[in-house]
Amino acid sequence: MTFRKYLVLAGVTVFATAGDSMLSHGMKQTGNISLDHLQGVILAVLNPWVAVGIVLLLAFFASYMNALSWADLTYVLPATSLGYVLLALVAKFALHEQVSPLRWLGIALISGGVGFVAGGPALTAHSEDERARSKSPLLAKEARNGAPMSDAAHASDDVRAVSSGVQR
Amino acid sequence: MKSAYIWGGILVVMFASVVGDVLLARAMKQVGDVHELWRRAGLWAVFSHVLGNPNFFLGVAAMAASFFSLLFALSWGEVSLVGPAAASLTFIGNAFAAKIFLHEKVDQRRWFAAILVAAGVVLLAG
User: What is the tens place of the pLDDT at every residue in B24-75?
Assistant: First the structure.
């Protein structure tokens, strides 16, 4: 994993959280939209909170697609859930709201889940086609950067699969 | 009877969003590493590869379907049930779908993570 890739994953988390929050704040100002009054949608988009929220969600989508281009879906998805943790931390430390023990437990579970996945390889090397591609020097370099740092994970089969894909 | 509708709605939301995630992930794997593509062929090539991929559009359509079915499900059930239930079931569903359709190596580490995250989402959003 390069620093740039961590930035992309951070973008996935932050843009999704900020976008959702702004959208929901703006929608509370504009009020309900019903199928009978679809012109309400236009009014909603004119609300600055909603407009900025939409731009942020587009940025989220771009980072999400970027991440999916070099990492497994099951690697990227836990990162998206970090947004819930971020929201709770903002509620606690910026808005000084009460965060219940059950919510702290939720934060611990999500963070633990993300930590588990982050300790493993980002991308499964499985097809002949991909092994052939990783022969190209540029891609091999990327794949090497993508391999996790040395820890217990180094012994796992996945890492061996990834690195053997690189060496072949 | 009403709860059957609500859970049916939740399952539709989950199904559509899993289909969307899998299609988008497949599209981006077909495009390949965008950093590498950008360096090699420029930003324009990234856009044309992504927007020229049929799976990308099917994925976006499935995501839109999931969004609108979420709106319907929310009009039937409580936000505090529908939101977390749909979100956390999607994590579990995606782990299965990624293994079956994307042939990702979902090892114990990732199963465990999917379950922890799903449980955490329920606790946080509930």
Answer: 999 999 999 998 899 998 899 999 999 999 999 999 999 999 988 988 888 8
Cβ of B116 and A127 within 8 Å?
Answer: no
Q: At CB < 8 Å, which residues of chain B contact A? A: 21-22, 24-25, 28-29, 31-36, 40, 50, 91, 94-95, 98-99, 102-107, 109-110, 112-117, 119-126
Domain positions in chain A are 3-118, 125-168
Helix axes B2-31, A73-93, angle to 10 degrees: 120
pTM of the predicted structure, to 2 decimals = 0.78
Cβ within 8 Å, pair B125-A142: no
How many residues make up chain A in this entry?
168
The CA dihedral of B86, B97, B37, A19, to the nearest 10 degrees, is 0
Q: How confident is the model at residue A28 (pLDDT cuts 50, 70, 90)?
A: confident
